[in-house]
Fold each of these.
Amino acid sequence: MNAIRLTLSIAPAPGEDEFALDDAVRRLRRELLDTDVDGVERLRGDGAAPGSKGAVEILQGVLAVALTADAGLVQSMVELVTAFAQRGPGRRVEVRCGDRELVIDGASRQDVRRVREAFLELVSADDERPDER
């Protein structure tokens, strides 16, 4: 099976400040690491002003998840991320895999099922292509 890399971009819930968002992202990272994913890291960006020397900052609310393109594992991850989004009313999580994107926000059970099915199709399509990542 191929390995895939997902990028999770977490938008704060209404009224959630940067500290609360940071705490929520840390909890989500720990929860993801408790699953069978290969790794989870907070993405870093170049926060330096032009001409300054090398400050690097953590990108607010962005995680990179490495995992095997396994339907069961992906389903568990999508359910975990959906539960995370539902814990913060109004919170939104964008899940990217290459040029594909799924948005999870305030989802109902029917929405969760739809997102999970779409994501599993995405992984199946990626699993059929040669590993380009």
Note: The chain has three helices and five strands.
Amino acid sequence: MGNVAIGLIETQGLAAVIAAADAAVKGADVVVVGCEPIHHGIVTLTVAGEAAAVAEAVESAVRAASAIGRVLRFSVLPGPWEEVVEMVTGSPLRARFPEGPEIVENRCDEVVGSAESDGGDPWSGYTVVELRRLVRALKASGLSGREISKANRRTLVEILRRHGEEREEE
């Protein structure tokens, strides 16, 4: 990941933080790395990703949370020190596929191949967020970013399976 950033959004109430998290991941390519209840209904949401994406996600999250609740504070920390990242997230921040789309395509082939050999679902170990990230990295899904953000597990898995089949035919 190039220029990493952490975004923090502190809200009053659970509904506001859920709306903030939803808007953040739909609005930009970020990952929710934490949702921490503080006290008296105050909840802090933490997102991470590329600096520009985090800034965009925080802006979307603040807008969504403000519409149904109260946003107390928000901040974007571009290029945080590694110890700060570990303090906030509990571990070093690394994207699951930092190497880029070529590695994602190879990973798709590995996952499909391993599932065919054992008869299981190759995508069962991936979260919907991770599946969305894979589909975005392929850039061959035919879906817009908004459509990918709203796609369910079944749709995402179908796109990845089709991609794997197309690559086998080549």
Note: The two ends are 30 Å apart (CA to CA).
Amino acid sequence: MASSSGPAGTADPAAAEVDAYRPKIEAIASAQHSGSVIKEIGPPDNLALVLGLTAAWASASPALQSLAPEAPWSPERLRRHRAAMTAAVQAFAAP
């Protein structure tokens, strides 16, 4: 693995945080090895993309959220976002 030092001016990540990500990275690597997940995207980038998609609606601008057909935080809107996120992950992760 790469050095744990962060970008200039940031602290190194806590060991507990690194240890929390390690099984996820290992699971992605295992899935890549078995051929069930694309190999062209390394495990850390793969996880970062999934985490980014997970948070995408929460970080979308109010202007973008206002264009959704449902209220931004309604159960239906969150279901739609979850379905879209799942489809996106399946599309980019498929071998």
Note: The chain is about 65% helix and 0% strand.
